[in-house]
Design brief:
alpha/beta, Muramoyl-pentapeptide Carboxypeptidase, domain 2
Length: 413
C-alpha cells in the first residue's frame, strides 16, 4: 500500500465519501457474518466508519482492531466519536503484524485496490483468520457502473500525471479478476482448501475451489450494489429489498463528491480542465442511466415510457411542472420549480449547475432513445422563472436534427 495516496485526504474524506460508502457497511458486515463476541480485523479502515459499525455488532464481549497505512487517516478515526473500545493501529496490509489464526473475521471496504500486491494482501487475510474464519471485501466497479470511478478515469485523461494513482481506484473491477485473486490466495497457504465466492448483482456463478471449506472469502462490487440501492432492488448480499433512494438525494450525494473534485481541479489545473472533467463524467453517467431505463422496458421506448420514468425525478416535490402537450411523438412541458437548481446554488455549485443537471436532459435522450430530440430555450439554472422543454420523436434516428439547448455548454447536448 502507498501512503501518499491517502495523506491529506482525511480532513475531507468523510465529507466527500461517507454518505456513499456508509451504504456498503451493512452488506459488508452481513457478508462477513459478523456476530456478538467475535474478534474482528478491519484492514484499510480509513476514518473508522466500518470499525465502528463492527464494534456495535460484536458488542462488549467482542474485539475490533482497525488499521490503516495512513497515520493521517488513523488520527481522524481516533478523533471521531463513538470509537470507544476500538483499537486503532498503523500497519501495512501486505504484512499484518498478527499471529496466525488470530481473528474470527477480516473485513476490508474499498481498500484492496490500493494494495501494491492484492494477492499478497488476501493471503495475509487468510493467514490471520481462524480455521472457521471468514473474510469479506468490497471493491470498486467498472467506470460505466460507478460515478466515482468514471470521474477518476476522466481526471486521469486530463491530468496524466495523476493517472497511475487514480487508476488504482478501479484496479480490481471484474468478476474474473476477483475470482482469480481469491482462488490463488487460497492455494498459496499450506493449511488446506477454502471456499471463495464473488457476489454481484448480475448473474454469476460462485467461484469455488472446494466444497469442504474451512475458510470463506466473500467479495462484492460496491458500486454495483449502490446502483441497486439507488433503484430499490434486492440487496444481493442480504436478499432484502430496500426503498429506492430518491433521484434528488442521488444527485445531492453525487454533487457532494463532484464539488470537491471540481474545487481541487480548478485550483490545480484551471477552470477549463475542471469543467471538462465534470461535464464528461456526468454526460457518461447520464447516458448509462438512460440505457438502463430503456432496458427496463425491453428497449420499447416511447414518449409514454419516458413520461412514466419522469416520476422518479419529481419524487418528494423535487420538481414542479405544467404539461402543455403530450402525443405519441411530442411532449411539451414547463418546469416551474426545480429544487435541483436550488440545491446546487445552496451548495455553492451555481457555476457548474448546468453541467450537473441541465446537460443531463439532452444526453439522457442519447442513451434512452436515439429518435428522441430536445429543444429548450431557457432554464431556471440560468435565472429564468421556468424551464421550457419540448421533446419530440423523429422518424430517422440518424437525422441531422440536433438537440437545441440553453443552460448547457455548447456541445454538451
Amino acid at each position: 500500500m502507498t501512503e501518499t495516496l491517502y495523506v491529506g485526504g482525511a480532513t475531507r474524506y468523510d465529507q466527500m465519501f461517507a454518505r456513499v460508502t456508509e451504504a456498503f457497511i451493512p452488506a459488508l458486515l452481513h457478508a462477513a457474518r459478523i456476530a456478538e463476541g467475535q474478534r474482528i480485523l478491519d484492514v484499510a479502515t480509513g476514518t473508522g466508519a466500518v470499525a465502528r459499525a463492527a464494534k456495535d455488532s460484536v458488542g462488549p464481549a467482542g474485539e475490533v482492531v482497525a488499521g490503516d497505512i495512513s497515520s493521517t487517516m488513523l488520527d481522524a478515526a481516533r478523533r471521531n466519536e463513538n470509537n470507544a473500545g476500538i483499537k486503532f493501529e498503523q500497519f501495512d496490509g501486505h504484512k499484518l503484524p498478527y499471529p496466525d489464526a488470530h481473528f474470527d473475521r477480516v473485513i476490508c471496504q474499498l481498500g484492496l485496490a490500493f494494495f501494491n500486491d492484492p494477492l499478497r494482501g488476501l493471503t495475509e487475510f487468510r493467514r490471520v483468520l481462524k480455521r472457521e474464519g471468514r473474510a469479506a471485501v468490497i471493491v470498486n466497479s467498472l467506470p460505466e457502473r460507478s460515478l466515482f470511478t468514471r470521474i477518476c478515469t476522466v481526471i486521469a485523461r486530463y491530468v496524466p500525471e495523476r493517472a497511475e494513482q487514480l487508476n488504482r481506484y478501479a484496479s480490481i473491477r471484474t468478476p474474473e479478476r476477483l475470482s482469480k485473486l481469491l482462488i490463488e490466495s487460497c492455494r498459496s497457504r499450506p493449511e488446506g482448501p477454502c471456499e471463495t465466492q464473488c457476489g454481484f448483482p448480475s448473474p454469476m456463478p460462485a467461484a469455488t475451489s472446494h466444497s469442504s471449506s474451512k475458510w470463506k472469502f466473500w467479495l462484492a462490487q460496491g458500486a454495483d450494489w449502490v446502483d441497486r440501492l439507488y433503484q430499490g432492488k434486492e440487496n444481493p448480499m442480504t436478499d432484502t429489498a430496500r426503498s429506492p433512494i430518491p433521484m434528488f438525494e442521488q444527485r445531492r450525494i453525487e454533487a457532494t463528491i463532484l464539488k470537491h473534485v471540481y474545487d481541487t481541479l480548478k485550483r490545480s489545473h484551471g477552470t477549463e480542465v475542471a469543467q471538462k472533467t465534470i461535464a464528461e463524467a456526468v454526460r457518461a453517467s447520464s447516458i448509462e442511466q438512460a440505457k438502463e431505463f430503456a432496458a427496463k422496458v425491453g428497449g420499447k421506448t416511447s414518449i409514454q415510457t419516458f413520461v412514466d420514468r419522469q416520476a422518479l425525478w419529481k419524487l418528494g416535490g423535487a420538481m414542479e411542472m405544467e404539461v402543455k402537450e403530450q402525443t405519441e411523438t411530442s411532449y411539451v412541458f414547463d418546469v416551474t420549480r426545480c429544487r435541483y437548481a436550488e440545491m446546487y446554488r445552496d451548495m455553492g455549485l451555481a457555476e457548474i449547475g448546468h453541467l450537473l443537471s441541465c446537460q443531463r436532459d439532452a444526453t439522457f435522450c442519447e442513451g434512452y432513445d436515439q429518435r428522441m430530440r430536445l429543444r429548450r430555450t431557457q432554464t431556471i439554472m440560468q435565472g429564468a422563472n421556468h424551464c421550457d422543454f419540448h421533446y419530440t420523436l423523429v422518424e430517422d434516428p440518424k437525422s441531422p436534427n440536433r438537440n437545441e439547448l440553453t443552460g448547457a455548454q455548447p456541445g454538451d447536448g
